[in-house]
């Protein structure tokens, strides 16, 4: 959500270009989501793996 390196619109464009992609935006987080909000990233990965 707060990524100054890769703005959200770039991630949205990439997700739109990949068939079946789902963009998960982590609130109150910058570029290093796995370090800043690991619980949110893990939850998104677990949901994806369970699908």
Helix and strand topology:
Blueprint: H1 8-17, H2 33-36, H3 38-50
Explain this structure to me?
The chain has helices spanning 8-17, 33-36, 38-50. The protein is mainly α. The chain has one domain (8-50). It starts with 7 loop residues before the first helix and ends with a helix.
Brief digest:
By secondary structure, the protein is mainly alpha-helical.
Major sheet characteristics = none
Shape: flat
Low-confidence stretches: none
State Rg. Answer: 11 Å
Helix content: 40-55%
Order of helices and strands: HHH
Number of strands: 0
What's the average pLDDT?
94
Structural class: mainly alpha
Q: What count of structural domains? A: 1
Query: In oligomeric terms, what are we looking at?
Result: single chain
Keywords:
51 residues
């Amino acid at each position: 959500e707060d990524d100054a390196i890769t703005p959200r619109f770039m991630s949205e464009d990439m997700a739109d270009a990949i068939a079946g992609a789902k963009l998960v935006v982590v609130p109150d987080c910058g570029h290093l989501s796995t370090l800043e909000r690991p619980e949110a990233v893990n939850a998104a990965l677990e949901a994806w793996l369970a699908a």
